[in-house]
Amino acid sequence: MTVRTADFTLLTHVAPRAIDQRVVRIGAVLIMTLLTVVAAQISVPLTFTPVPFTFQPMLVLVGGAALGARLGATSQILYLALGIAGLPVFAASPILPQGALRLLGPTGGYLMAYPIAAFVAGYLAERGFDRRYWTSFAAMAAGLAIVFAFGVTWLATFVAPTAGFTGALAAGFWPFIGADLIKLAIAAGMLPIAWKIANWRI
Asked: How far is CA 5 from the centre of its chain?
């Protein structure tokens, strides 16, 4: 595996050299934030848990790997900031509020984990993990583990402490892990394919 510099990502590889790189970075962060908002709207409420099914985690991980650690994390910090400011960017829910109170609810742990998960996936991608399928899978799996660790711990500690970690796992892990692993298996192939396409064109 090739060790690369911290700024060598898929984004910097394909970005036109004639464009100011600051513009490229700002644009990439804004686009990834917008895509996160869109992914949040594709959600399925589940009757047996307050945590909805969404496509956000996979987008967070793919975005972090494509943009790199700092920019990937920045896009998710911006997403959370928009939500805290009261904009309707979080997943629609009949029981969970928009705004800052969403971070105090049952999905707060997952949401607050997004910048860290994006950073980890991006950090590993910067070091070549996004070039091959299985290492790409490992990088994104590390980020997904962070999302679940934060989410389940938040549920067990602040939302339903009487149920403990067993209840938190039943509400926030077991119903999602199977589908998320399938999504992860698909998402892990995106960046190696994108690298091959980029290298063919350059």
From this structure: 22
- What's at 8, amino acid-wise? F
Cα first-last separation, the chain: 21
Q: Is 0.70 topped by the overall pTM?
A: yes
Packed helices 164-172 and 174-187: angle between N→C axes, nearest 10 degrees: 50
List the domain boundaries for the chain. Answer: 10-201
Can you state the angle between helices 133-154 and 164-172, rounded to 10 degrees? Answer: 130
Predicted pLDDT at 127:
94
Domain 10-201: CATH class, spelled out = mainly alpha
Closest CA to 78 of 37, 132, 127: 37
**Calpha distance 140→155 (Å, rounded):** 23
With contact defined as beta carbons under 8 Å apart, do 121 and 147 qualify?
Answer: no
